[in-house]
Amino acid sequence: MTDVTPTPGIHHVTCVAGDPQRNVEFWVETLGLRLVKRSINQDDPSTYHFFFADAEGTPGTSMTFFPWEEMSRGKVGSGQVSRTAFRVPEGSLDYWEERFDEYGVDYDERVERFSETVLPFRDPDGLPVELVAVPIADDDPTVPWTEFVPEEAAIRGFHSVTLWLANPDATMDLLRTMGFEEAGTEQSPGDTPGDERTRFSAAGPVGRYVDVLPTVGAGRQGHGTVHHVAFQTPTDDDQAAMREAVRAAGLEPTRQIDRHWFRSVYFREHNGVLFELATRDPGYDSDEPLSELGGRLVLPGEFEARRGEIEADLPDVTVPRAERAEADD
């Protein structure tokens, strides 16, 4: 088998939302992430695709959404990414609880997991999300966006995803093939008694963890669920080798697909979770200046020729700005 370069970790996570305006307001203003790309679902151009990330759209920081308004509320269950966790600086969880109280965010009591403090909450569509307080190194690759949230509390990319799986063993073997190493097992607070959470760790500084939990309850895709999780395969050669390793594991990866800001390969792992492999280049600033990311609707490739038709089908969306919010106070 071709030598596989281990994945550094998560590249992005893509979820299903409902109302697009509500989605933008929550992830930009309440959580303080930057809208780095305003585009369309390339498989369904009648729907937006929003990308929220750090100030520069660094790999490992972007939470993306398809706001399919016509869909119903989903149900988190087996065969899904059940939780998406972000890193925040140590000492910032008091700030976040106060902010959640101010903005009416539904959150739970903090829990300790693998010696880290976790603050679980839900977005307006019911999507389960977590903030994990961690030390942020001076050379951390993420760049905090501080229009709404101060640097000392700003979200600094992904911490982890949790997979709920009916038969975890084959998926755990796949994670090892992708370069993750088993980092520990514990009975975590909030998890079903008797079900142990197994943590896998990649080598990168951001989005390095995948937690696996045995779960048999069926899920249903809809608002408030994760559509897929993407892992970094930085170069085309890295991706090709990983794709071959996935095929050798008995799975059926797609051909490489150009997604304009990265190149992607998709496959469903053994329990049905949709995985993506994504390259680092060309990046979100390949078609917009860094200072203008997310300022306009970007239509990749052949979709630009259909701009009039596409814009007519999309609802208007206003992106929150700090100066606008202050003027309204």
TrEMBL record:
It comes from the Archaea. InterPro entries: Extradiol_RC_dioxygenase, Glyas_Bleomycin-R_OHBP_Dase, Glyas_Fos-R_dOase_dom, VOC_core. Coiled coil: none annotated. Gene3D superfamilies: 2,3-Dihydroxybiphenyl 1,2-Dioxygenase, domain 1. Residues 9-134, 157-280 form the VOC domain. This is Dioxgenase. It comes from Candidatus Halobonum tyrrellensis G22. The lineage of its organism: Archaea, Methanobacteriati, Methanobacteriota, Stenosarchaea group, Halobacteria.
